[in-house]
Specification:
Order of helices and strands: HHHEEHEEHEHEHEH
Domain EngB-type G: 75-248
CATH architecture: 3-Layer(aba) Sandwich
GO cellular component, one term: mitochondrion
CATH class: Alpha Beta
Keywords: GTP-binding, Magnesium, Metal-binding, Nucleotide-binding
Protein name: GTP-binding protein 8
GO molecular function, one term: GTP binding
Amino acid sequence: SQVLRLERSRRTGVVFPLQKLARYLAPGTDTAPFRLFQPGLAALQRAEELFRSGRHHTIDYVSSAVRMDHAPPPVLPEVCFIGRSNVGKSSLIRALFSLSPEVEVRVSKTPGHTKKMNFFKVGKYFTLVDMPGYGYRAPQDFVEMVEAYLQERRTLKRTFLLVDGVVGLQKTDHIGIEMLEEFGIPYVMVLTKIDRASRGLLLKNVLEIQEFVKEKTQGCFPQLFLVSSQEFSGVHLLRCFVAHVTGNLPAVEGS
């Protein structure tokens, strides 16, 4: 909660880890994809307010569902988070909601723990959905559940596809990519666990994924989002992007 009060250079290192990484690129490298979404301090503060519950702004777990007919009515703009099992999805969602510690986001040490779609309502502004992990120990009906959600949820504004920042894009990640591309769903790639990767390894993975996005995808936002749920790097920027794509930051410079 103190990060946005830091002096600018220190704040930039925490809020914009991708820009910090860009300093180590070879001269002449195209850095445009590193700074497509570059909100100012006012926008970051507004996003922080949205993720902080208060007397007239309740953030809470709503319900879980294994089928679409069990899902809450699609009233608010929605974002969903998907990724392979053990990518750190629940930990990231808990970090996003860290300003509202009463929100219960269960984090398991056992891969594949999330078996249902979990819905979290952020006041009157938007809903965040934690989807089951795919790959190891994925629910048997995972594909049917997630495909139905992606195709039918008319309030879905953006899907956040999580990729392990240490190992980069894996074969199992293509399950999510292929679904999103097939259905024409706009999505963003988020690299998790960046605190566990060396600078060189992280930069290698970032450049490889950026090239993949440029050459092989249609619906993916060109800028990657780097996050650490342990050190909170990139969490403020991701909050801001969620607020932006759900229509709660109508004007963001550099967006």
